Structure formats: structure tokens, C-alpha cells
Write the C-alpha cells for this entry.
Amino acid sequence: MLDLDKTNFQSEVKEAEGYVFVDFYGDGCVPCQALMPKVHEFADTYGDKLKFTSLNTTKARRLAIAEKVLGLPVMAIYKDGAMVDSLVKDDCTPETIEAMIKKYI
């Protein structure tokens, strides 16, 4: 899992070729913390087929708002720099996240 911040989001996600998975999470977000081990497991399982990244929105609030991330957690798939799919809040379960990943690998 590649940790993103406002200095590398542009190069690692917006300018990346192909598919990139972004886990948007926050420091005080309990569901985010609960999902994190599972998301890291998916990164280990599918990391050879999809680039896995995460962004702490607590430290990059403006960037999150610019990406239209207004609630947490958000799991998103970008293709060639554009968000093509996402799961928000209650839709983020290990099952739905894995299903979304499988659609793009």
C-alpha cells in the first residue's frame, strides 16, 4: 500500500496509467480503522494486478474535497487519472470492496 498525501497524489493517482485503488480514510474514522486490515489484505492479494494506495483525509482535507470525498470511508478506483467507481460509507464492506476490485483486474 502506497501512502498518499497532497505532494504525491497528482503523480501517483491523477497521472498514473491504468487502474489505481484509493482508500480514503481519516484519523477518527472507526469504520475506516476496522476496514484497514482487510484492505491491506486485498493489497497483498491483488497488488500485482492493481496499484493500491491510501490517503489520510485528515491531513489532506482540501484534496479530499476536490476529489468529492465528503464522507468516510471511501474506496475508489481511478483509471488514467479519473475516478471511475467508488464505495461510500455503509457501502464499504469487505465483500463489496473485493467485488469492486475484481471488476477492474
